[in-house]
Amino acid sequence: MTRKEEIEARKVEIREEVEATEDIEKVEELEKEVEALNEEETQIEDQEKTEEMAEEMEEKKSAVKVIEREERKMENKKEYRDVYLSNLMGKQLSEEERSILVAEDGAIPTETQNTIFEKVVKKAPMLDEITLLNVKGNVSFYVEGTRTDGADHTEGEDIDESDVPLIKVDLAGTEIVKLATISDTVRTMSIPAFEGWLTDMLSDSIANAIEAKILGSIETNGTAVSGLVDAAGIRSLVAGLPAGYEAGAKFYVNKSLFYNQILALQDLSKNEVVTREGGKYFMLGYEVVISDKATKVTFGNAKKFVGNLAEEINIHTQYNIGNNTYSYSGVAIYDGKVADATAFQVLNTTPSA
Asked: Over the stretch 152-211, which tens digit does the pLDDT of each residue have?
């Protein structure tokens, strides 16, 4: 029992004693005791308020310190990012800035790295379609195959669980390199402008290379389906895809082929091969993804293609004294494979543009 609880209990006892006695002197003594108890109770409450205020102040101080630490971390990140980019631009660094660069081993800042990756994914639509990993070194990954149908069961007999087959995909990695050269006037650019130019240039080239690899692999390793670029050929692609892969399946085709040949198949009076809804095109009810890196008409489930960016995208630079220019190279380590050839039906006709 706390002291406040003891005081409250004693005050209750006093009230009972006052009610039970007619002794005036006794009542006066009890009233004095109540006054003393009330004074003590007030002191205790004042002390509690003081302690609460002190705790609140400490909590506020702690919160301020956390905010200050986070702000300092952000300042440090921005400081390093500016130093890193200034170094790439060939600007003269102070001794303190060189120390900052050395302390971080000259690594590409996380923010710049993320900017490049986000731009690569945005510029290569297929990276959003496939199963994309970001695992260092060689990697083995398992993808679900098509589900098997359930079987009749005889009462009383053991039930065999039918598992979804797992397909193993082994990925290594090859370098994708983009080299660009810019004049010495790069040093006159602002840091944000330089970062924007550099990340745009590198991400655009790397994205194009990766997208070409993805679609090239799918068209080469998918299931070849003979036919023409007509309604029958398109229907044959859909008919050939295993039902277990239909959820999420899409058509993949380049812009020229789609607008020059496939769109001409649209004849709502005879068929609904091609339709449009909400700004998107659909063929036989399946969404169409347009990529300039596609050379054939493909129908399939892109999640059955596994890609891996084995390392973070890195940037290297070199000053060319002979022509007073700076060269920048972006390096990505990438590999990707089709997990199951039947997950992609490829119209085996190279159409004329």
From this structure: 545 555 545 445 567 666 666 666 776 778 887 777 788 888 888 888 888 888 888 889
Residue 1 in domain: yes
Q: What is the average per-residue pLDDT within 272-291?
A: 90
Closest CA to 142 of 278, 277, 340: 340
Span 105-134, mean pLDDT?
83
- Give yes or no: residues 328 and 193 share one domain: yes
Helices 24-88 & 95-103 angle (0-180, nearest 10): 100
CB 139 within 8 A of CB 310: yes
Q: How far apart are CA 336 and CA 265, in angstroms?
A: 33
Summarised one tens digit per residue, pLDDT across range 1-22 is 788 888 888 888 888 887 888 7
The pLDDT value given to residue 224: 94
Would you give the distance in Å from CA 131 to the centre of its chain? 13
The predicted-structure confidence for 71-90, as pLDDT tens digits, reads as follows: 454 455 678 888 888 888 88
The answer on 83 and 132 residing in a single domain is no
Which one, of 339, 302, 286, 134, lies nearest residue 215 by Cα? 302
- Domain end among 107, 142, 177: 107
**Within this chain, do residues 142 and 69 fall inside the same structural domain, yes or no?**
no
Position of tokens 């309604």? 231
Residue 156, domain member (yes or no): no
- Does residue 157 lie within any of the structural domains? no
What is the extent of the structural domain holding 4? 1-107
The answer to whether the CB of 335 falls within 8 A of the CB of 173 is: yes
Same domain, 67 and 115: no
CA distance 275 to 79: 52
Distance separating alpha carbons of residues 295 and 349, to the nearest angstrom: 10
Answer yes or no: do 140 and 88 share one domain.
no
